[in-house]
Each structure stands twice: as C-alpha cells, then as structure tokens.
Structure prediction request, 472 residues.
Amino acid sequence: MKYLSSLLFLCLLNIGVNQAQELNFNFERWQEFYLYDEPKGYETYNFQSYFVTFAPNVTKIPGPIGSAIRLENKRALLDSAVVPGVLYIGDLAQFPAGGIPFNEIADSLTGYIRFDIKPGDTAIIVFAYKRLGITLGFDLIPIAGTLANFTKFTVPLTKPFFAPDSIVFLMTSGNTNNPIEGSFVEVDELKFTNTTKQVPNSSFEDWESISFEEPEEWATANLLTTLLRTKNSVVKSTDASEGDYSLLLQPVYVNKLGLNRFFGATYFGETGSGVPTPIPYKSNKFNYTFSYKYLPEANDSALVIFRGFRFNTQTQTRETLFVKLDLLAGSPTFKTVSGNVGLLPAEMDSLMIEIYSGNYVNGLTPKLGSQLWIDNIKINEVTNTFNDNKESGIKILTNPVSSTLTIQNNAIDNPVNQIEIYNQQFQKIKSSQIRESQSSTVEINVQSLPASNYFLMIKQKSGITVKTFTKI
Ligand SMILES: [Ca+2]
Prediction:
C-alpha cells in the first residue's frame, strides 16, 4: 500500500486553521479513480501487477479481428519481483477448482497468437474439463520462443471419456514461479472446433473499466477492495442531511487471495491511498458537531473518534492531548451530535478524524450489514490561535514536489530562521538553518525523501507555522 500512495494522491494543500470549514466535511466532493480495463468473464493478475508496477499486465490491444488480449511479465518498480501476466476462469488458489458450466467436447482449440517468450521462460495455455469436480481431461499447451506476427494456430485437445459439466482455463505469459521480465503473449479468437458453444468473451471484445469513487480528503480501503473485485466499504449516498451527498459506510469482509480482513472505517487523509493523515490544526480547545444516521446489525454501534495531538519541540515527540470518542446508537433518521474538549493543557497542532461503521473497541467484533451515514462535520472556530497561515506570510510554491521545495515568506519583518521536516510519525527528517538574507525565498532539496506527505515546521523570528507538503 505504501507504493500506491505516491501514485494516487490528492495532496492536502496548505490546509490551515483558517480554511478548516472548506474541507470536504460535508461529503459533497467525490473523486473517481480509474484503474484499468478487465476482460469480462475472466479474472486476471492485474491487481497484483498494479500493486507493484502501477500498471496492469493483462491489457486490451488491437487484434487480427477487433480487439485481442496481451499478457506480459512485468518487473516491480521498487524491488526485483516479476509479476506474470495471468488470465483465468476458475479458482486459481485451488486450480483446477471452480470454472464455468460447459458440457461439450471440442476437437481442438484454434485462435491467433503472437509472442516473445524470453529464454528460460515458458508461457502456457491450460484447459481442463471437469465432471462433478473431478478433472476428466487436461491440456497444457506450452509456448516458447518468438512469433513476430499474429498467426492462426490449431491444437488438438484431449478428449475425455465422459461428457464434462464444467471447464477451467488458465493462460500465463511466463513461468508462474520464476517469470522472466518482458516475456509476452497475445491471443485473439480462442475457439473450440466442433462445439456449439464457446467460452464467453473468447474473442476478447468485451472489457469493463475498473474504477472506484472516494470522498476527497478521506482515506478509505476502496482502492484495495476494488483491486480485489469486492464491494467498496465507503460509498456516496444521496441520503444526506446537508447538500446532495453524505458518506455511507457499509462494512465488507474480504477473504480472497490470502487476505482475511474486515474493512469498515474511513479516516481523514490521503484520497486514493488509504493513508490516514492528521489535519494541521491549532487550538487549545475543540468543539464539533456532525450528523449521522445508523442502521446497526444486531447490537452493533458505530464510532466517531477525534484525536488531538501536539508536537513537543522540547522532547521532539508527538503527544496525544485527547481522544474524544462518540459511540453511536441506531437512528433511522439523521441526528446531530455535538461535543467538545476544552481547555487543553497545551495547544494542539494536529487533529485526526476516524469513522467506524461498527464497534471495534473493547475487543468487540463489528458486524457485517451495519450501515452508517455521516454528513456535515463541523469544527469550531478556533480561539487562541497563534500565528495562522495568513499572518505568517508563508506560502509553499512547489507542492506536490519532486526535487526542490520552495517556500516563500512575504513577511519581511518576520524572517524564517529554521525549517524542519517531519514525517507522518512526527519524526524529524531534516533541519535547515536559514540565513536572514535568504529568508524571503527558501529552497530545500527534498529529492532523497521517500514519496509521502510531510509536515513542515517553519520557525520564524516570531512564531512557528506548520504546513504540509507532498513529496512525489
Ligand atoms: Ca452533504
């Protein structure tokens, strides 16, 4: 998930106290993320390829007739793993389990093929007939070497003794355990001869786009659940207490490909990445309201948690100043909750917001089926703010940034003395002393930082300003 955050982000640009009410706290703004196209009727390794290369390795290409399919072994961007292109019908984890109904016996398999399989690698096409779960016939067609142009092929298939009731199919662009980067195979019009039926979408004309939607400025698990082709836990609802939309949390349980997890939470954070992010927020007290509607399953209860933090410059650690937890009982109509935390012993500088569709506390298990609508979160006008963004005159000119972070200081009488960069865990990454002569435009090289969101602590002659930036 770490890799994904650098690709699919909507950075939190200069979110300051004075802009708090402009945040997407009413869930009116949603963003659609398109991932890739998938061939209908099949499953692929695109999700795995996407995790490590940001791109699918099973793709639609122009074929000899309409569109064709390409499977390619791709190397991960940040490690040495190579992901084979895999296309299948059935249950890959327990191959040849699963499959689709099919009761005819073909003489042979025909189609068009083009490939370049690297030395030491072998692509395969596998068909297996089954009856009552037992494999009746199994054909494994190995592919090696190079065929530069689409060429028609015919391969005789093994004829089972009994009529099958189902069929499974697998095709790869290389060895499944040690694929070699760059091997690819392209096929079109995969047809059985002498049967009345074909495998659905065997011409590879039907593709569906895989995409998901997320509320801007909120971190959800929708990317993961979409990649795994399951229901999303966070969806846009037109059942709103304010405006056109609210946030609907409906928990999902994913038990697929080794993942065994419950997803039923959302956090203020980095859109598209699932990474929670604190909101820079300065105050020594805290008031809030929000609206909710909740249809719990059994005795479930939802949760909204606000956490206030402070970065202690003396000890260089992040301290939790408060945890405010609202346990929400069922309510068939929208209801407003308000609460406050006041007066804190020290000023908070950041806030986290977490919303849970079910009860996670005290070892309780949240229930599938609970539905929670949240809308119109409001946070108090801040009192006792020191040196907010407007007054400090600080502006970040390059955000998101890949190499040089440029910070402009418009307050001539309040020069910048020092700039410190902290990561999401509030660990100090970098510290730069700034000479007064250079303090109107400060440039910091951030090229070596890993892609992520960071905090900038800008120390001026009078006061400290906290800003965020995104390194890409
Ligand atoms: Ca709304």
User: Anything to note?
Assistant: The first helix runs from residue 2 to 7.
